[in-house]
Amino acid sequence: MLQVIFTLIMLILLQAVLGFDNLLYISLESKKAPLKDQKKVRKIGILIAIGLRIVLLFILVSLIKYFQKPFSFLTAEIKDIVAFAFNGHSLIVLIGGGFIIYTAIKEIWHIISTKGLEINEMASDKGTKSSNAVVFSIVLMNLVFSFDSILAAIGLTREIENETTAFLVMAAAIVVSGLLMLFMANKISEFLSKNRMYEVLGLFILFIVGIMLLTEGGHLAHIKIFGEEIVPMSKTTFYFVIGILVIIDIVQGKYQKNLLAKK
Fold it and tell me: Cα(44)–Cα(46) distance, rounded to whole angstroms?
């Protein structure tokens, strides 16, 4: 019983740590919905995602070997130039990473362009997408982010002999972490609304999340370019880069204030 409780606590902590990038995406994406619907969009999106995560957990537990097995028609090698062996897991992670990078670049471009500034001002009142479209985006990307956390959860629960108990522990961790995400998403969104300057920082962090997913997908697909295998970006490196970006943003902000004060 103690082992089950300890595993549950570890899984909740793991879901919370791995869910940071997902949380940031939800907070930024929900701002595209009409202002009056943003809280509702976050709530619906996360609640649907919790249910689908449990479904995904059941599928992965049952069919995990098929997600890890390379597709024969997507396996090839050109000696000393390129080699790859794509599987279901790698394709989902690569597509998700590419979509996040595209989203981040598009939003950054809108922000730095004159037209984009006008759109951003209007977005706080009208939104740039329908509520249903935003909910769909949140649910879809939540599932992409879910793969790693669920696979890690499966690894942590291998010592629990009873398969039903292991599944219930993982499902409970998903529900608890999902509810925490629901609470934190509102807080982060409110902070970004009051501090619009940090939206750019958030988008660059999201861009790095996309790069991290691409490197991970490339590693899962066993991609080699000129004999060099793609190595996934570690979470330690990811958080270190985020820390550097935050420090740069703080220093830059203070420097700009000092310049304005001198003028």
Answer: 6
Question: What pLDDT digit, counting tens, does each position of 127-147 carry?
Answer: 567 788 888 888 888 777 777
Give first-to-last CA distance, the chain, whole Å. Answer: 66
Amino acid sitting at position 30? S
Contact (CB, 8 A) for 192 and 199: yes
Tokens for 43? 């709530």
For the chain, the residue count is: 263
Residue 145 to residue 225: CA distance in whole angstroms:
26
Nearest of 207, 215, 217 to residue 92 by alpha carbon: 217
**CA-CA-CA-CA torsion sign (117, 118, 122, 128):** negative
- The more confidently predicted of residues 243 and 13 is 243
Q: How many CB atoms neighbour CB 234 within 10 A? A: 12
Give every strand in the sheet of 224-225, ordered side by side: 75-78, 82-85, 224-225, 228-229
DSSP states along 142-167: HHHHHHHHHHHHHHHTTT---HHHHH
Task: Decide: 191 and 182 in contact? Cβ < 8 Å.
Answer: no
CA distance 14 to 262: 47
Cα–Cα distances in Å, from 243 out to 201, 246, 247? Answer: 11, 5, 6
Q: What is the DSSP string of 94-131?
A: HHHHHHHHHHHHHHHHHHHSHHHHHHHHHHHHH-SS-H
Asked if 230 contacts 215 with a C-beta cutoff of 8 angstroms, the reply is: yes
Sign of the C-alpha dihedral computed for residues 92, 181, 28 and 248 taken in this order: negative
Sorting pLDDT into bands at 50, 70 and 90, what band is 116?
very low
